[in-house]
Structures are given as C-alpha cells and as structure tokens.
Design goal:
By secondary structure, the protein is mainly α. The protein has helices at 59-64, 67-77, 80-87, 92-119, 122-146, 159-174, 179-197, 208-214, 224-232, 238-259. This is Thiaminase-2/PQQC domain-containing protein.
C-alpha cells in the first residue's frame, strides 16, 4: 500500500497521457470509482519457487524472503496493474481507482494502529500510538486534500481493499502485537517492486515517478516499521509471525490484481 514518499505522486485518471497533471485537476470531491467485473482468469501461485537464502537476515527480511513470500511478490509484480505501470500503458482509470481506495486504506490503518495501541503496553503502545498519528495525519490528510475529499468515508473501496482492511482491524483487536507484522508488506513490497523494475521504466513515462519515489533510497535501507520489528521480535516468534505477514502479502497482491481488473490472488500452502 501507500508509502509516505509516494504521496506527492498522482496520475490523471480521466485519460492516459504521457504528461502528468495534478490530481486535484481531475477528481471531484464526491466522485467514486467502480471497477469492471473481473476477468475469469484466476491468478495462481505455483507450488515451486526459489528457496530462501542461507544468509542470516533480519526478522523482517527473513519473512520477506520466505518461499511463499517470494511467490507472492513475483506474482504481484506480474499483475496487469504493475506491468501496465512499468510499460506506461496502464489504464489511468485503474490507477485512479487504486489511489482513491488507498485513502480508505490509510484511514483504516490509522484506526488499526489506534486499536493496537489501546491493547498493548510499553514499546508497542508507544510505537503504535506514533504510527496511528502518522497514518492519520502525515499520510492521510495530504491524500484527502489532493483528491478533493473531506474524509475517507466518501470512498467506496472494492472487495479486495475491504477484505484487506478487515484483516488488519481483526489483527489489531485479536493479536495486537502482530499488527506490526501484518503492516510490513505495505512498505516492503512496494519498495521491492520499485527496485526491481525502475531501471526498465522510461524516464518520460507517466508512472516513472511512482517507481523512482518508492525504490529504496540506499542499499540496505529499512523503514521505521521494519526497524521496530527487527528490534522487538525474536526468532522464537517467527513461525507465529509468518501467517500474519503472508496473508497481508496476499491481500496486497489481490488489491493490485483487482485494480487491474483481475481476480484475487490465492493463499499459497504454508501461509495458514
């Protein structure tokens, strides 16, 4: 989902052109976008895939490098949505629908962090409180302003976004400690995809800035969420954390898939 460094990058949704316009010029305050019926071709994750490196990684990176995670991230990179952005030919209505729904996701994330903060203590309570404020102001407010919306309630999310949002709220209430794990794919997957394809995206492409802004600013860079997870989760918690991470990865994949008029991604064996 949306990272802080992509907030300034918005693409016109009225027509796909090479020139980038401000999003405030093309969206009205109450406009809601609805996706077409999805195609019948289901995205499936193969049973075979690259094995995890023997190199010892951080807790967060180890989750991202799990075999199941590699399958999901590769599938996400091959969705119509991401391939369309890479080529510069993505239907601009798809992009607009995704970005507008992302506003609802940001508001939901702030609520999830607030829920988790109320149910945890110490470092977790402090961090979740900080993240709730960041998501509800630093991330959400600029998006609302840019898209001429007064609140996230004016957005009608699609099925994939609703299911993703519901998953995070459930985790925040039932297993609040692991909300940090469930939120990791939001930043890690975007950054990984941007790094993978930015070199093949034409600089004059309407979507080049998305990849450029979301790629890692430096080798080995970690965001505040990854740093927190690495410092506060031990190896003995890895097997418990993995399903939360894996399911969130699938939700990310499905959100991109539905936004490209494709059916949802499947949960691979080993994620449950």
């Amino acid at each position: 989902m949306l990272g802080a460094n992509v907030l300034a990058f918005l693409i016109p949704v009225a027509v796909l052109v090479a020139t980038v316009f401000s999003a405030t010029e093309v969206f009205g305050a109450n406009r809601k976008l609805h996706l077409k019926e999805p195609s019948k071709q289901r995205l499936e994750i193969s049973q075979s895939g690259p094995k995890r490196s023997a190199e010892q990684n951080s807790f967060s990176q180890s989750l991202f490098d799990e075999t199941e995670s590699q399958k999901i991230r590769d599938l996400t990179k091959e969705t119509v949505f991401i391939r369309g952005m890479t080529s510069g030919l993505l239907n601009a209505n798809y992009y607009g629908a995704y970005m507008v729904q992302d506003i609802a996701y940001l508001a939901n994330g702030a609520v999830a962090y607030k829920n988790a903060a109320a149910l945890t203590e110490g470092k977790f309570k402090a961090f979740y409180t900080e993240m709730a404020t960041k998501w509800g102001s630093e991330y959400l407010i600029p998006m609302l302003t840019a898209w001429h919306l007064t609140d996230a309630g004016k957005v009608e999310p699609g099925t994939a976004a609703k299911e993703y949002m519901s998953f995070l709220i459930t985790v925040s209430k039932d297993q609040p400690k692991y909300l940090a794990i469930a939120m990791l794919p939001c930043s890690m997957l975007w950054r990984w995809m941007a790094h993978q394809v930015v070199s093949s995206v034409p600089v004059d492409s309407a979507y080049y800035s998305w990849f450029q802004d979301n790629k890692s600013p430096s080798p080995g860079h970690k965001g505040s969420l990854e740093t927190f997870v690495d410092e506060n989760f031990g190896q003995e918690e890895f097997n418990t954390a993995k399903p939360f991470f894996c399911k969130a990865m699938v939700h990310e994949c499905s959100f991109f898939s539905e936004s490209g008029n494709q059916t949802p991604c499947d949960l691979p064996p080993g994620c449950a």
